[in-house]
Amino acid sequence: MDMETDQTYQIDVGNLLAFNPNHRFSSAPSSREELVKECVTEGTKLVQAIADTLFNLPSTETNDGPLVQLPPPSTKLPREKHLPRPKPPTKWEEFALKKGIQKRKKDKIVYDETTDKFKRRHGYDRVNDDNDIPIIEAKASDEPGEDPFAKRLDDKKKRVGKQEKNRLENLKSAAKAGALPSHVQLAVTGLPISGTKAQPKKIGKEALGDVAGLAATSTASGGKFDKKLPGEKPPKKQGKHHKYLPVVPRYGWVDEEKEQTNKVLGKLLSKHSHEILNVGKAINMYNDKKEKKKSGRSDKLKAKKDITKKKPYANKAN
Amino acid sequence: MMEIRTPKTHKAKRVLEKRAPKLVENGKKTLILHGTKTSATLSSVLMELYRLKKGGAIKYSRRNENIRPFESGGETSLEFFSQKTDCSIFAYGSHTKKRPDNLVLGRMYDHHVYDLIEVGIDNFKSLLSFSYDKKIAPHEGSKPFICFTGEGFENVPELKQLKEVLTDLFRGEVVDNLNLTGLDRAYICSAISPTKVFLTHCAIKLKKSGTIVPRIELVEVGPSMDLVIRRNRLPNEGLRKEAMKSSKDKPKKKVKNVDQDDVLGKRGRIFIPEQEVGKTPLPDKSKGVKRERREGKLKKKNKEEGSASKKHKESE
């Protein structure tokens, strides 16, 4: 409510704003405290004036307290953004307007004549699903070598592509008029140079992993202690993989498995077997194992062995 | 080659819709930042302004060297920040020898600078220096009263602009319904001279008076400072006209669950929630609550009273 008379204030209840245009502050500076006091008393009067109107508004009682309906603010302040601009009509809308086509609301459930049931229009087990057609009858206009099912899929792809193109055109014209919908952005993608192919695809995850693995093996410890980024997979097993010999030897070929076992046996039972097998060490290992099994205690609780003392070797293999 | 990009998550979509231009706009957010050098007073001013406007303000803590609001090229950073944070008001503080304790308050229209006003800060008293009863301390985000006193606000064009900018700054959201118990703060601006405005922030104490309207008492709680007008820039006429444009019609609110029919008339639909028979509260069958018991007790009480009063009468 604005009252432009000499003695009253300009009050805007919608903004909880009050303005007293008539007060004159003395040009002679009184002490700071007095000035502050004067300002606060004047302010109190203004707030009281707003409260007078505010508390006399019709209020509804709620759990938190009395709720009043504020009138819209009367002081005009500039907007922060422009007013939403009207969208230009799309190509279909123009056509529909010209032809007088009305929008009709489609039902979610449609009667399917082939199965005599009511099916949904979109989604699982829908009416007129392209994948469900068992037989397409040949027409006189069909070419002999053409696959009608593939033709249907092709037609659909073309239709969808055309629709996407139309949608893009509609959005472009809306963007030109400044009325692009808020959640859509039109982005310019890179053009391939005329005469050349489109840009190659970015390097894939696996290729990157392989290259990283290659680089890791060039380090002194073969990449075993390299710091891994979060999400990086551990390196694939490097080196030779186990070669499994065939169980049944091929006709005319040497039985490799037999050869392998014979080799090992021969070495063990040969004259110089003591040179190959470190009997003392073998006995120690066997005894250790036996003791561990018996006691069932872990090695950690046992008294630590003195590692400076060297074990006596029976024979050093030449 | 153009490509249509839509947000892949609902959250992103909601954020974009919130920031889109609308008929009825959201409350303006404030961006608080500072330049290469700030003094102690200025940094506390910015900090307290941020605290007062918590919930509707964003404070940047790094210094910005390339922001010069009054120069033609120096506003690009500001406009970029405004775009990124969706803030339409900014408060830029800087301290130089020529302009000590300088605060530039500016507004944006469509993320371009709309108008600017530069004030110097004198006699600043921080909100920590005021002592008051903590019970009346204003709550965060409450809608404030804004009061202007002094003929300067009407006669001097710079003060007029400052009045508008301060209203925009302190206003917060425009609301339809207001809870009267939540009114606890007021900003008092007094034009003590044609170039100086005294600004203070007070808490409101509602005291009982005879009528519905309580008696108002103001207690200074918040920061208080003197604003000395320095430079300003008014918006150019065309931009101002465009920004002040408002659409008169409100979008019609769709009334749900009501349909009109020529045959049946106006019909409404009521949805009743599923009655969970297993979870219905059974009647309280404890003895003391039974109706017969209660009524019997009441009768007894009345009888006793009656007899007591009779006795009393007899005794008299």
UniProtKB/TrEMBL annotation, chain A:
Which Pfam family name is an example for this entry? RRS1
Q: Does the keyword Nucleus apply?
A: yes
Q: Where in the cell is it found?
A: Nucleus
Query: Which stretches does the entry tag as region Disordered?
Result: 58-89, 219-243, 286-318
Q: Where is the composition biased (Basic residues)?
A: 307-318
What the protein does comes down to:
Involved in ribosomal large subunit assembly.
Q: Which PANTHER family match?
A: RIBOSOME BIOGENESIS REGULATORY PROTEIN (PTHR17602:SF8)
Q: What is this protein called?
A: Ribosome biogenesis regulatory protein
Q: What is the lineage of its organism?
A: Eukaryota, Viridiplantae, Streptophyta, Embryophyta, Tracheophyta
UniProtKB/TrEMBL annotation, chain B:
Location in the cell reads: Nucleus, Nucleolus
Q: What span is annotated as the signal peptide, if there is one?
A: none
Q: Does Nucleus show up as a keyword for this record?
A: yes
Q: Does the keyword Nucleus apply?
A: yes
Q: What's a BP term from Gene Ontology annotated to this protein?
A: maturation of LSU-rRNA from tricistronic rRNA transcript (SSU-rRNA, 5.8S rRNA, LSU-rRNA)
- PANTHER family in UniProt: BRIX DOMAIN CONTAINING PROTEIN, RIBOSOME PRODUCTION FACTOR 2 HOMOLOG
Q: Which family does the entry's similarity section mention?
A: Belongs to the RPF2 family.
Q: What is the recorded name of this protein? A: Ribosome production factor 2 homolog
- What is the gene name? BnaA01g23660D
